[in-house]
Amino acid sequence: MKLPGQDAIARQADEHLVTHKVKLPRKLVEHPFRQVAKRLSIALVVLVVTAVIVYADHDGYTDNSDGSVDLLDSFYYATVTLSTTGYGDITPVSDAARLTNIFVITPLRVLFLIILVGTTLEALTERTREEWRLNRWRSALRDHTVVVGFGTKGRSAIQTVCATGLRKDQVVVVDPSGKAIEAATAHGYAGVIGDATRSDVLNRAEVFRAKQIIIATQRDDTAVLVTLTARQLNRGAKIVVAVREEENAPLLKQSGADAVITSASAAGQLLGLSVLSPAAGMVMEDLISQGSGLDLIERPVIKAEVGKNPREMDDLVVSVLRGHRVLGYDDPAVGGLELTDRLITIVRATPATHVTPDARPLPRD
Q1: Which phi and psi angles does 334 have, rounded to 5°?
Q2: Looking at CB atoms within 10 Å, which of 7, 76, 122, 274 has the fewest?
Q3: 10 Å Cβ neighbour count for 8?
Q4: CB 249 within 8 Å of CB 260
Q5: Could you read off the pLDDT of 286-332 as tens digits, one per residue?
Q6: Cβ(301)–Cβ(343) under 8 Å?
Q7: Cα–Cα distance measured from residue 74 to residue 91, given in angstroms and rounded to the nearest whole number
Q8: Cα-Cα-Cα-Cα dihedral of 37, 42, 48, 50, to 10°?
Q9: pLDDT digit string, tens, across residues 258-271
Q10: Cβ distance 328 to 364 under 8 Å?
């Protein structure tokens, strides 16, 4: 396996110092500055309306300094009244002015306070609400899918599993890049910013409760460390890892991976197949694109199919899973299907087509 040099080790040590946090998907809202500006604008409108009302009835008010109330005095009175300061130097003396204060100025004062105080309270309680959301999310998260790395491979893996019926709130993305996590939360997935080789970061993703873990990091050595850490935290989860170099696949299986996909080799094989037969390449690309065209799915054997040969099935059976063995459809050892068998079949994708989850770990070499 190709190990990084001393400079790469130093970079990893620096990454450990990065603060990690959980980010939950949120509804699309206005920018906070825009919200505050909008509320301040409403408050200024309330202030102006109050000043205009006072000036329209300025004969009903008296000023202790000169006895008359002009436009400036109206704005001054509106300001001290709405802010509940109330110096008392300008007071309503006529019945009309006092009725206006009771039924108009007082409601405007309440509205003014609600706008300003509400903005302040919202800013102060944002952290409390976020902590409450995190606690509720953690308590409800069970049997979810953790995806380490939100690059091209990670995004494609999530799209595939979600196309088979997995809800977005059952996916947690872990990535050291804040921009990647922002993109994940924008798609409706929960995200954890941090280095997945650290157990405390994976614990924030509740990996010990996860049902399956997809590791799609950029480096093979990082994938090995993440696999070791994830397997230590969760002995029963199904771990699937993508690597670049085929020579690193055995090491990953020794580290606890149930399945290892060699991305470079798989892409190369698909390229070669497309050169030899473009039609065959199109069919293979269709099969690996879950949710459209032809789908490759795993499902259990039903009672009506027990005893039948795979070639007698209505579905196009590719392989039979019996115990820890994967048998081809034409393998003489298959014989008749058993109720405990599972089938790998090719079906036409429909909105109701879902892959039946399998809680058993994949067979290891």
Answers
A1: -70, -50
A2: 7
A3: 13
A4: yes
A5: 776 766 677 778 889 888 888 888 888 888 888 888 888 888 888 88
A6: yes
A7: 11
A8: -140
A9: 988 887 777 777 77
A10: no
